[in-house]
Design a protein that fits this description.
By secondary structure, the protein is α/β, with parallel strands linked by helices. The protein has helices at about 15, 65-70, 85-100, 100-110, 115-125, 145-160, 170-175, 190-195, 215-220, 235-245, 280-300, 330-340, 370-375, and strands at about 5, 25, 35, 55, 75, 140-145, 160-165, 185, 195-200, 225-230, 250-255, 265-270, 320-325, 345-355, 355-365, 380-389. Helix content is about 30%, strand content about 20%. Helix 3 (about 85-100) crosses helix 6 (about 145-160).
């Protein structure tokens, strides 16, 4: 079946090659079945009613109106972990930049004038101002132990560091990935008191906004280095400026430029490079393209941010995929409607996530349009898709 895919940003060709050959991919297609996006803001965009799902080739979905899409039964996918190695490597680089004073040292060298002999004398006289510390033997605190946090912990341990972690929402899979040497902090406050380096790996939510503020900065060890390659709003910038000026924080290394901080000699800012590697862009595109195609063809959901993971092997040629609100007796109403039409259910699975749920139903013969209309009319049903093979 021909599907229309609209791309809002440049998506890796390796990812797009995973889509079925019958799919038509365009950056300005009319009435697309799905949208693939990286960073483009979609909150003020008129999203066509034809859109069944949105695939974010990355982890964060702040640029997508997730709530509005959920209420329309539009599944929003992301690619968690696909860029984890790229971010992990940049965090390690950030630790080295912070602890070895690389950024101010580079600025010092770039400002030198004179012949080679003069430069040599200036270097020998000035290098004492940039004495740093080694990573080995230091303690790294990681707040957020998902794919990036787990990889970072593993690499830090290999570098001879001690690692302390905190994540009250850690999943079973993430816990299995975590090296056994990671020590558990009982709270964020406990973690910041114990660590020479602190790296943030949590999403920006109301609960995490200004997570690192004046009170937590006061709890930090003097000379602590903070690394933020997650989201800028997690750190309160005026409080961080005070922390830098007072020497409580030795360096703040992040991926988000700031006018308030960027002239400070111990603020190291990169232009949002965390996932900017060819490998990460390819991995994200491949993951999200596979997820979008499986959803469009089979109704299966993996790595959505607004609906539960759900999948069911195809054992019948006639499938219904139903997005619905998480309300009582939904399965009963669906089963009753199908039974009333004389349709025998071959297999059925339903899963919920917060306010929303999803149902896959395989029946043994074709589903007439009036039955689809009847299912669509059930109070709480957001979208019904009929997927004959």
């Amino acid at each position: 079946m021909t599907r229309k895919i609209q791309t809002l940003n440049a998506i890796s060709k390796k990812g797009l090659s995973r889509l079925p050959e019958s799919y038509v991919v365009s950056n300005d297609g009319a009435e697309p079945d799905a949208i693939l996006v990286r960073s483009q803001a979609m909150h003020d965009m008129a999203i066509p009613a034809s859109v069944l799902c949105i695939g974010r080739a990355g982890a964060g979905t702040n640029n997508i109106p997730v709530k509005a899409m959920s209420e329309k039964g539009v599944v929003v996918f992301n690619a968690p972990g696909a860029n984890a190695n790229a971010v992990k490597e940049l965090v390690i680089a950030g630790m080295l930049m912070g602890t070895r004073n690389i950024f101010p040292a580079l600025k010092f060298v770039s400002g030198l004038v004179g012949d080679d002999e003069s430069l040599h004398k200036q270097v020998e006289a000035g290098k004492k101002h940039f004495v740093g510390h080694e990573l080995r033997g230091s303690t790294l605190g990681i707040i957020g132990l998902g794919a990036i946090g787990s990889l970072l912990a593993e690499s830090a341990i290999a570098l001879g560091m001690n690692v302390v972690g905190f994540d009250p929402e850690i999943t079973v899979d993430a816990a299995w990935r975590l090296p056994s040497q990671v020590k558990k902090a009982v709270s964020i406050d406990d973690l910041v008191k114990r660590c020479d380096f602190i790296s943030l790996h949590v999403p920006l939510l109301p609960a995490t906004k200004d997570m690192i503020g004046a009170e937590r900065i006061k709890l930090m060890k003097k000379g602590c280095i903070l690394l933020n390659f997650a989201r800028d709003g997690i750190v309160n910038e005026p409080a961080m400026l005070d922390g830098l000026n007072e020497g409580k924080v030795h360096a703040y290394v992040c991926d988000f430029p700031s006018n308030l901080l960027r002239q400070h000699p111990r603020f190291v800012s990169l232009p949002h490079l965390g996932a900017s590697t060819e490998e990460a862009e390819e991995n994200c595109a491949i993951m999200v393209a596979d997820q979008v195609a499986d959803y469009l063809e089979n109704g299966n959901i993996l790595n959505a941010v607004n609906f539960p993971n759900i999948g069911m092997p195809r054992e019948s040629g006639f499938r219904l995929a139903i997005a619905n609100s998480n309300v009582p007796n939904m399965l009963g109403q669906i089963s009753t409607a199908l039974a009333g039409a004389g349709l025998n259910i071959h297999n059925m699975v339903n899963k919920s996530r917060g306010d929303f749920a999803f149902t896959l139903v395989d029946v043994e013969c074709a589903v007439p349009q009036p039955v689809i209309d009847q299912l669509t009319a059930i109070n709480g049903v957001l979208r019904v898709r009929y997927l004959p093979s």
